[in-house]
Amino acid sequence: MAMRINRDITAFDTSRRAKESKDVRDSRHLAWIRTLPSVVSGRLGCEAAHISFADRRFGKPERARGRKAGDDWVLPLTAEEHRTGPEAQHRTGKEREWWESRGIDATTLATRLWAVSGDTEAAIRIINQAKLMAAEMRRHWKAGPA
Question: Is 93 within a domain?
């Protein structure tokens, strides 16, 4: 049976007050994200990778220097993909481009996972769908213009 994490009714509030509030901190969501397969490789044993860049579509501000983004802006990545590998998310210095080069719309995916937080079956469906779309985008890029 799927478990859902209950949140305050204002969790998805787009009002000015919500935008001015502090970043979301949710240790249960982070722990759950770590149980999911990587959105890049599909491997297990993940870390919760915070998304730092801004995205106007979701009212997501860029993180302040020296601060992590809110815990609602995380995706599962293996340690190698996140921090330790030669082409890890943290090593590139160009996070948005890192996600785009893999065909992943990071903020949309994080928003979708936040919406189903605690429901592992739904999350795996969302991740698999995103991976299929990413693979299709990479095939399209390799094929070049028609």
Answer: yes
Burial degree of 115 (CB within 10 A; 0-12, 13-18, 19+): middle
The total domain count for the chain is: 1
Does a structural domain hold residue 17? no
For residue 86, which amino acid is it? P
Q: Does 138 fall in a domain? A: yes
Domain of residue 89, residue span: 23-143
Distance CA 70, CA 61 (A): 10
Question: Angle at which helices 106-115 and 120-143 pack, to 10 degrees?
Answer: 160
29-58 pLDDT per residue, tens: 999 999 999 999 999 999 999 999 999 998
pTM of the model: 0.80
Summarised one tens digit per residue, pLDDT across range 98-124 is: 999 999 999 999 999 999 999 999 999
Dihedral sign of CA atoms 95, 13, 124, 120 in order: positive
